[in-house]
Design goal:
Growth Hormone, Chain: A, single chain, 321 residues, mainly alpha
Length: 321
């Protein structure tokens, strides 16, 4: 399992780094964030929906074989290098680095990297979802595994209209405003779960719960891509992805402990804990640099461009025309 996750992290570092580099070069981090999240949500939702049925039809070993066959497609896709992306992607200023030691120093000194990592840590720290929610639905509401899988699929699918809306809004509203709007909307995201008393109401509430998280998640990905230092796109995107996984699992672990420690009230406390953590995102937004978040998608930032060139020159990278 550890080997599988390590290998997938290498794949993720490659594609997310390239995605961020193209976003910076083409000034389209907002639209690419929306597209990226739509594309990755569809198989996640489909997988979640299929998981409930597969557990009833196939053995675990058979399910792993099915997943392995799908994964083989990644190897074929890795051979495709479209010229529109790869021909000069690493020749422009945003792609320039300066060697391992100098790049590590640049990364640590690049203040813009810290807000997206911290915001992702907070947004994915959700003790009120995942394992505690599954316990609540299956143990207390007597829902089947298929019902929980359906809830999760509906939850994910409900993000999609907000991602599409983000792709439209990012060309008309600055990232700074979208971050604030998204964070404020997301604060009460998990509170409807405290009102769940039947499986049917849980499935219905999955729709607004999912929609309330769409704007902020797309904005976090947008911010991460804009905040990448030159030549270190893969590094920062992996830091953000690492924050995602660590916080996601830490919240799951804490939520499971709270659920078991307070019988009858544990799930409510998990939801309230999630809401409190989401509220703490707002002060962090004050530390997002204006030069990074103060423009529309596709709008150049002379101040940010000058900072990129100065950073490359200070690091000793080869000058780029």
């Amino acid at each position: 399992m550890l080997l599988v996750m390590v290998l997938f992290r290498f794949v993720a570092a490659a594609y997310q780094g390239l995605l961020a580099l193209v976003a910076q070069e083409k000034l389209m981090s907002g639209r690419l964030s929306a597209l990226w999240n739509v594309v990755q949500t569809l198989p996640q939702a489909g997988g979640a929906l299929a998981a409930g049925y597969l557990t009833e039809l196939l053995t675990p070993s058979q399910i792993f074989v099915v997943v392995a066959l799908f994964t083989l497609a990644l190897a074929a896709l890795g051979l495709w290098k479209p010229p529109a992306v790869f021909s000069h992607a690493y020749d422009l200023p945003p792609a320039q680095g300066a060697g391992f030691v100098a790049d590590v120093r640049r990364l640590l000194r690049h203040r813009a990297i810290y807000p997206p990592v911290l915001i992702m840590l907070m947004f994915q720290f959700s003790p009120g979802s995942n394992t505690p929610l599954q316990y609540y639905l299956t143990n207390e509401l007597q829902a089947s595994d298929t019902a929980y899988a359906a809830w999760y699929a509906i939850f994910l699918i409900s993000f999609l209209p907000m991602y599409l809306a983000y792709g439209y809004l990012c060309k008309r509203v600055t990232l700074k405003k979208l971050l604030w709007w998204g964070a404020i909307i997301a604060i009460p995201q998990m509170l409807p779960l405290a009102l769940v008393h039947t499986v049917q109401s849980a499935l219905l509430l999955a729709v607004p719960i999912g929609m309330m998280g769409g704007v902020i998640y797309a904005a976090i990905c947008d911010l991460a891509m804009r905040s990448c230092p030159p030549g270190l796109q893969g590094t920062l995107m992996m830091l953000v992805a690492g924050a995602y996984q660590l916080s996601y699992r830490a919240g799951d672990l804490l939520g499971a402990w709270i659920y078991n420690a307070f019988p009858g009230r544990g799930f409510l406390y998990c939801v309230l804990c999630t809401t409190a953590v989401y509220a703490m995102i707002l002060p962090v937004l004050l530390f997002v640099p204006e030069r990074v978040s103060g423009t529309l998608d596709g709008q150049p930032s002379p101040e940010l461009d000058a900072e990129v060139r100065a950073e490359i020159a200070a690091a000793g990278a080869a000058p780029v025309a």
